[in-house]
């Protein structure tokens, strides 16, 4: 058996910054790991029916039951999400809601080490814009705090506005590039973020993984 760390990514993009960031942190834990991509699974939000009270098991028949079981069996949990409209993405949120059955009467996640990784396009401290990374990490941290988990930390990874892939080069009237960086911004000037080009972020992710790896020993 041994120690196992579960990493769950809410990013639907293939091999996304979010996925790669999570994989870096998982590798740095020094333990056996499992990587789950939520978009490969079917998961609905919590129905608030409280059908899980007696059994600690959700009554919704989808992958949420199996995913909660994996979270319960893992020695630590790293949740990685992204921030459409600057709050945590819905898959990640649904996954957390579906961990609610583990709460009842026994607090089955209590004491377990946990960490957050959130990719966002808005750099921290951007005037007039929501603190996307902070809000995303805060959502994951709130889940972990409310379950009495040992929240080890969070890393905000700089992603890109979707305009990167649109073909208009960020120059249309609803450009996210201009919304965040101002009316004269261009991708040439702002650049396109790739996780591997940021040694500080890689180092922060490795540190997060190491901290999780250590925290499992309690
Ligand atoms: C549809 C869409 C909407 C987004 N909206 C925001 C946003 O409001 N705020 C933000 O910080 N990032 C936003 N982003 C950027 C993402 O949070 C993330 O940084 C980007 O998708 C890169 O993540 P990935 O490569 O892991 O998928 C948006 C991305 C997409 C695709």
Detailed description of the structure:
The radius of gyration is 18 Å and the shape is globular. It is built from 7 helices and 5 strands. The chain has about 220 residues and is an alpha/beta fold. The chain starts with a strand and ends with a helix. Flavin mononucleotide binds next to helix 1 and strand 4. Flavin mononucleotide (FMN) binds next to helix 1 and strand 4.
Summarize the structure.
This protein has 218 residues and is an alpha/beta fold. The chain contains 7 helices and 5 strands; from the N terminus they run βαβαβαβαβααα. Strands 2-1-3-4-5 form a 5-stranded parallel sheet, sandwiched between helices.
**% residues in beta strands:** 15-25%
Level of helix content? 25-40%
Bound molecules: flavin mononucleotide
Strand order of the largest sheet: 2-1-3-4-5
Task: Give the overall shape.
Answer: globular
> What is the makeup of the main sheet?
5 strands, parallel
Distance between the termini: 18 Å
Low-confidence stretches: none
Which features would summarize this protein structure in a list?
alpha/beta; binds flavin mononucleotide; globular; 218 residues
